[in-house]
Amino acid sequence: MTQSPKPWQAQAQALVPPLDSLAAIQDLTPTYSPLNRVLSTVLEHREEFLRPDSALAIVMLTDENDCSVLDVGAGIFVAGAILAAVRGWWLPAGLCTGLAALTRADGLLIALALGTAALWRRNWRGVVAVSIGCLLTLAPWWARNWLVAGTPFPGGGLKTLWLRDYEELFYLGQELTVSRYLAWGLCPLLASKLRAAWYNLYVMLGPWPYLAPLAVLGAWQGWHDRRFRLGLAYGLALWLALTLGFTFPAQHGSTFHSASALVIWQAAAISRLFRAS
């Protein structure tokens, strides 16, 4: 009678690539190379502990919130929403807004920028069209959450608003409440916001801060272009949300990933500057 594998063995065997792939790589490497020796050792251990058709899964834990599959994806959809809105295509702008929100939650902030711009021009149809497009994109996902989790907005992501330290995110049984947050005191609150404000500004200047002055000059020259103004409005909304709201998650990866959406606008501003010169 064959003995069934233990749970941890079954989990490992279900996740591991075939043994043939490692053997094939070993055949392609010189016998004297360090890689060949490493592969030989790995294959020996696998032969001892796992079936030939199994694989080894290595799980790494980190305190970074690296949850986005494609960081720049939000930037692409944000840019699409802005380009559509500038052309008066408010429904496609809403669809792109919903896709940006599905890529990263902060992508929904572009709806605030577009809605404000439409209200400024008293374009009520634009506001309604953006809202409808956004809902058409997000409603299926919300319905799925309702069916699976019993609520369209599962999880406690908004509770991170009340963190007094990032490590509190990992405290078991720690209740994150508004009253507890305010009891921290005015001075610590202001100090945390100021640190986050400076950090977020530095990161959001772009992956190459020394190019930020060129981007600022290019944006200034193209200020008459509504695309730049809407991009700046989105960046401002993002900076305010990460500084005043999600203060501590912002300094542990959130701003870094969210700022990827602004790289497109930094590159466009610099490109405009050099074209003008």
Low-confidence stretches: 1-21, 63-69
| Secondary-structure content class | mainly alpha
**Succession of helices and strands:** HHHHHHHHHHHHH
User: How many domains in all?
Assistant: 2
Main sheet, how many strands, which sense, barrel? none
Brief sketch in words of this structure:
The chain has helices at residues 7-15, 19-28, 34-49, 71-86, 90-103, 109-120, 124-149, 178-182, 186-204, 212-221, 226-245, 247-258, 263-276. With 277 residues, the protein is mostly helical.
Describe the structure.
This protein is mostly helical and 277 residues long. It folds into two domains: 7-49, no CATH class; 71-276, no CATH class. The chain is 66% helix and 0% strand. The protein contains 13 helices and no strands. The protein has helices at 7-15, 19-28, 34-49, 71-86, 90-103, 109-120, 124-149, 178-182, 186-204, 212-221, 226-245, 247-258, 263-276. The longest helix is centred in the middle third of the chain and has 26 residues, at 124-149. It is globular. Residues 1-21 and 63-69 have low confidence and may be disordered.
Tag the structure with descriptive keywords:
277 residues; mainly alpha; 2 domains; 66% helix; disordered N terminus
